[in-house]
């Protein structure tokens, strides 16, 4: 009776091996030491760790790869924010023409942030770290133009949703700049 179980165990072992190699899990252990060491030297450690650990590519990445992952997180944030703002242009919530004008300007500014971060990815691939820093700094600054547009019109309040998105992008960019600084000194 025991000899009949061995073929089943072998098939199970082969199945599990194939399953784990062809369908990796979404949570990545990664190189915990490099991720933790890197993130501890950034302004927003928790954001850095959670973002990097959520990307499967982090397990095999060096500092440049970790920076690229964080830039891609920033691209996603800026793109989503631009789309959110664009959706406000077509919403039927009774928004004023002036508010829609400001939303349009903000959508454009966040699209510029996306373009700057995409340039940063190119800069990283070419190891042009100075240009990468310039593009990240620019991306972090574009939301200021949006906030300032709201300030120009005293009757318009700066939406909390937008404030949260602005802070998110700025924090992501600060993490990228922290990683870039580490690249300079390695």
Automatic annotation (TrEMBL):
<feature type="domain" description="Pectinesterase inhibitor">
    <location>
        <begin position="30"/>
        <end position="179"/>
    </location>
</feature>
<dbReference type="InterPro" id="IPR006501">
    <property type="entry name" value="Pectinesterase_inhib_dom"/>
</dbReference>
<dbReference type="InterPro" id="IPR035513">
    <property type="entry name" value="Invertase/methylesterase_inhib"/>
</dbReference>
<keyword id="KW-1015">Disulfide bond</keyword>
<dbReference type="InterPro" id="IPR052421">
    <property type="entry name" value="PCW_Enzyme_Inhibitor"/>
</dbReference>
<protein>
    <recommendedName>
        <fullName>Pectinesterase inhibitor domain-containing protein</fullName>
    </recommendedName>
</protein>
<feature type="signal peptide">
    <location>
        <begin position="1"/>
        <end position="24"/>
    </location>
</feature>
<comment type="similarity">
    <text>Belongs to the PMEI family.</text>
</comment>
<dbReference type="GO" id="GO:0004857">
    <property type="term" value="F:enzyme inhibitor activity"/>
</dbReference>
<dbReference type="Pfam" id="PF04043">
    <property type="entry name" value="PMEI"/>
</dbReference>
<keyword id="KW-0732">Signal</keyword>
């Amino acid at each position: 009776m025991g000899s009949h179980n061995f073929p089943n165990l072998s098939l199970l072992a082969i199945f599990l091996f194939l399953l784990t190699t062809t369908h990796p899990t979404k949570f990545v252990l990664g190189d915990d030491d490099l991720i933790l060491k890197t993130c501890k030297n950034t302004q927003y450690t928790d954001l850095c760790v959670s973002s990097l650990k959520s990307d499967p590519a982090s397990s095999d990445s060096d500092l440049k790869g970790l920076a690229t992952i964080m830039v891609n997180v920033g691209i996603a944030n800026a793109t989503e924010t631009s789309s959110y703002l664009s959706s406000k242009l077509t919403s039927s919530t009774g928004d004023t023409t002036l508010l829609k004008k400001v939303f349009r300007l903000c959508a454009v500014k966040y699209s510029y942030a996306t373009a700057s971060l995409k340039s940063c990815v190119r800069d990283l691939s070419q190891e042009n770290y100075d240009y990468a820093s310039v593009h990240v700094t620019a991306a972090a600054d574009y939301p200021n133009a949006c906030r300032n547009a709201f300030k120009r019109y005293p009757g318009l309040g700066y939406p909390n949703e937008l404030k949260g998105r602005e802070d998110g992008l700025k924090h992501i960019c600060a993490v990228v700049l922290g990683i870039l600084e580490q690249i300079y000194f390695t």
